[in-house]
Structure formats: C-alpha cells, structure tokens
Write a structure and sequence with these properties.
By secondary structure, the chain is an alpha/beta fold. 31% of the residues lie in helices and 16% in strands. The protein is built from 11 helices and 11 strands. The strands form 2 sheets. Strands 8-7-6-9-10-11 form a 6-stranded parallel sheet, sandwiched between helices. A 5-stranded parallel sheet has the order 2-1-3-4-5. It is globular.
C-alpha cells in the first residue's frame, strides 16, 4: 500500500472551471492532496499548454470542450473525471485512441436544481428581484403579480430532476405537462404528468421549465420558432444547460415582449460576461 501511495503521490490533478470556488477546502480535495499534486482553475485556463503535465483532469459540466486538437496537446493525460453523466463535449474517439479514460459521475442526482427551478418561477412571476430593488431605492411598487396555483407547467426533459420538479409543482396544485425524446405515456403518468409533443407543450404552458440533457440533438432545441409558440403571458425557466435554449432568440423574445419573462441559471458562456446585458 505504501508503494502504491508513493506512485500516486507523483500524479498531478487539475480541477477545471471551478467558477463557484466550490472545491478548495472540501474533504475530497484534502484527501486527494494527500496523494497527489492538485491545482484548481477558477477561471478558464486559456492557453492549453498550462494543462500539460497533468495526469488527470476533473471537468465541471461541459464548460471545457475536449476536442481532438486539445487532447493532442496533453500527452500526459490519463483520465478525465466528468461531473455529471454526460460527455457530449468530449471527443470520445480521440480519447480512446490516446488511451484516456473518461469517467462519468453517475448514480445520483441533486434535488437542488429542482428546488431552484421552482424558486426561479416564483421569483420571476412575483417580480421579487425587481420589486426588492425598487424598495431599496426608496420606491413603493404595488403590482399585481402571478401565482403558480392553477397554472400549467410544461417540463422539457422528464429525467430525475424533471420528475422532482413535477412532484413539487403538484403540491402547488399546478397542471403538469411533460416532453422527452423517449418519454412514454406510461412513464409520464407515473410521474403525475401528461405527455405532450414538444410544440404542443410549448403552446399550452404558462411556464416552461427546461430539464433536458445537453446533446447534439438538444442544442438549440428551444429556438426562435419554438419560442414563438409560447403564450405572450408565459415564462421560460432554464436550470439545465444554456445552449439548449437559443440565447439570442430568447433575448429577442424578451425585448419584443413575445414572452412575459425568463428565469435562468445557465448561459451559453459561463461565467457570464460582465459586458453582456
């Protein structure tokens, strides 16, 4: 065992795209540092040469795209450990050719994404951030705002998180519709939802909440045409992945009053650039 630990201690591990500064000081990283050299990147690494010499990379979400060109610049890389169980951003053929192991984090999900989606619905429909800002500036706004009860919620992607959102939504006495590329009527019913085709779901819902996985098929899934199907009084919530929604099309829909509002936890480029509005 001591010999094995001695070998591991020569490993170099890089944790990428820790924009929330969540890793440093955690028990897992402390244990890893007992056995290997660990560097945490809290900003995009920029020049790929800074990753040369690392044996292992821990990738957060899909923030770094592991193309063939990038992998070819990392001759020492032996493993990519991916948070989440999707690796559409990794050139798997190139990784296999270079004998790089791609490890996915499977076996569980976080309820926090579902709770955040519900929180964003309430925040945007009740105008909580805007009204809080006005009161702090000395105003006393008195708008009539929307409630969740009785509204129709359309869930795009009825996986673990989507099903938990449906469960919470039913407690608010909402009518819940769902769509997924392989969703069956039976699976939808078991989750307390009604299966609909995507276009029908978009045109029927008061709130659309995105919980699909990012893949080549889902990239740009909610585009200008589909945003145009939504009611002018409807709201879009996205806590899944930014590129699933066509961001310029969404900005245009909001600017033109085509939909009532949006609550977003994800964007095309993360971290969100300061100059963008």
């Amino acid at each position: 065992m001591a010999g094995a630990k001695g070998i591991i201690s020569h490993m170099r591990v890089a944790i990428l795209d820790d924009t929330h500064r969540a890793y440093d000081g955690t028990a897992g990283v402390r244990r890893l540092r007992d056995r290997a050299e660990v560097r945490i990147f809290t900003q995009p690494f920029g020049d790929p040469s800074v990753l040369r010499g690392f044996d292992a990379l821990v990738a957060n979400r899909e923030r770094t795209r592991f193309t063939r060109a990038l992998l070819e610049q990392l001759p020492d890389l032996r493993i990519i450990a991916q948070t989440g169980n999707h690796v559409y951003h990794i050139d798997l053929a190139a990784a296999e050719e270079r004998k790089i192991i791609v490890a996915k984090a499977t076996g569980g999900f976080c309820t926090s994404a579902a709770e955040l989606a519900i929180g964003l619905m309430i925040a945007v429909m009740r105008q909580i951030p805007a009204l809080d800002r006005e009161v702090k500036l000395g105003g006393w706004p008195t708008p009539m705002t929307q409630v969740l009860r009785g509204k129709t919620l359309g869930i795009v992607g009825l996986g673990h998180v989507g099903r938990h959102v449906a469960k919470i939504a039913r407690a608010f006495e909402m009518n819940v519709l769902a769509w997924g590329p392989r969703l069956t009527q039976e699976a939808a019913a078991l989750a307390g939802t009604e299966s609909r085709e995507l276009d029908d779901l978009l045109s029927s819902s008061d709130i659309v909440s995105v919980h699909a996985t990012l893949s080549p098929e889902s990239r740009g899934l909610i585009d200008a045409r589909r945003l145009g199907l939504m009611k002018p009084t409807a709201y879009l919530i996205n806590t899944a992945r930014g590129p699933i929604v066509d961001e310029p099309a969404l900005c245009a829909a909001l600017a033109n009053g085509r939909i009532a509002g949006a609550g977003l936890d994800v964007f095309d480029a993360e971290p969100f650039a300061h100059q963008r509005r």
